[in-house]
């Protein structure tokens, strides 16, 4: 039995196309060129405010527009679910982990409103007993507090594990002193070797094995 907390974007779901569409609708409103999918992926990981800061820096937007653009971005983001897909093998892996008696949670830097809407859209909202978003607390990852809050909400003494796709997730796990399982195929920016981890997997068909190997 373990308490297993997952990152969301780039770990369980490929949400970059929806985030790209939100960014580009926001940029179109101020006559700026759209972001490519690669740019979008490279801006994801530190939450919506950092995403918007990176976006406006990349398109030479006046920083005075930041507050308004962030508000618009977050409003559009709530309904941005149609282009997002669950990575192959994720549903089967989550079902197997639940059947084995583990309790599951989410700790993401995605704002909590779009987190709830995309989980509901994908019919995954019943799988997790704790869901913490990037604006659920006054601090976000890599601060340890959101991961600790998700683990505490799972409400047991079982061993904790965090599963994520980025250097931000790895640092969060280090800060919380929680073992980290790394998915290599998500949105990480730094070289694989530089990411501290206790286990890793390249395909979600190997996710359960990577997690249970640590127990
Ligand atoms: O929204 C973000 O910037 C990142 O989201 P994640 O923490 O689920 O990877
Ligand atoms: Mg991620």
TrEMBL record:
MF term (GO), any: metal ion binding
EC number per UniProt: 3.1.3.18
Xref: SUPFAM superfamilies: HAD-like (SSF56784)
Biological process, per Gene Ontology: carbohydrate metabolic process; DNA repair; glycolate biosynthetic process
Active site (catalytic residues): 7 (nucleophile)
Pathway(s) served: Organic acid metabolism; glycolate biosynthesis; glycolate from 2-phosphoglycolate: step 1/1
Cofactor field: Mg(2+)
Residue sites binding Mg(2+) per the record: 7, 9, 165
Enzyme class at the top of the EC tree: hydrolase
The reaction(s) this protein catalyses: 2-phosphoglycolate + H2O = glycolate + phosphate
Keywords: Carbohydrate metabolism, Hydrolase, Magnesium, Metal-binding
Keyword Metal-binding: yes
Pfam families, per the entry: HAD_2
An annotated GO cellular component: cytosol
Recorded family membership: Belongs to the HAD-like hydrolase superfamily. CbbY/CbbZ/Gph/YieH family.
Function in brief: Specifically catalyzes the dephosphorylation of 2-phosphoglycolate. Is involved in the dissimilation of the intracellular 2-phosphoglycolate formed during the DNA repair of 3'-phosphoglycolate ends, a major class of DNA lesions induced by oxidative stress.
Record-given protein name: Phosphoglycolate phosphatase
Species whose genome carries this gene: Donghicola tyrosinivorans
């Amino acid at each position: 039995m373990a308490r297993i907390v997952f990152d969301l974007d780039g770990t369980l779901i490929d949400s970059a196309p929806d985030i790209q569409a939100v960014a580009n609708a926001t940029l179109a409103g101020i006559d700026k060129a759209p972001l490519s999918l690669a740019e979008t992926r490279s801006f994801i990981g530190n939450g919506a405010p950092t995403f918007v800061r990176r976006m406006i820096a990349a398109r030479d937007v006046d920083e005075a527009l930041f507050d308004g653009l962030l508000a618009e971005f977050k409003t559009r983001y709530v309904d941005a679910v149609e282009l997002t897909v669950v990575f192959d093998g994720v549903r089967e892996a989550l079902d197997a982990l639940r059947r084995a008696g583990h309790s599951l949670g989410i700790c993401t830097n995605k704002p909590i409103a779009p987190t709830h809407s995309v989980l509901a859209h994908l019919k995954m909202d019943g799988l997790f007993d704790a869901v913490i978003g990037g604006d659920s607390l006054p601090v976000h990852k890599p601060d340890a507090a959101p991961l600790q809050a998700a683990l505490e909400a799972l409400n047991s003494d079982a061993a904790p594990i965090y599963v994520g796709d980025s250097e931000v997730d790895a640092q969060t796990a280090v800060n919380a002193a929680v073992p980290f399982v790394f998915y290599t195929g998500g949105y990480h920016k730094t070289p694989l070797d530089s990411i501290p981890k206790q286990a890793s997997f390249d395909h979600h068909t190997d996710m359960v094995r990577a997690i249970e190997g640590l127990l």
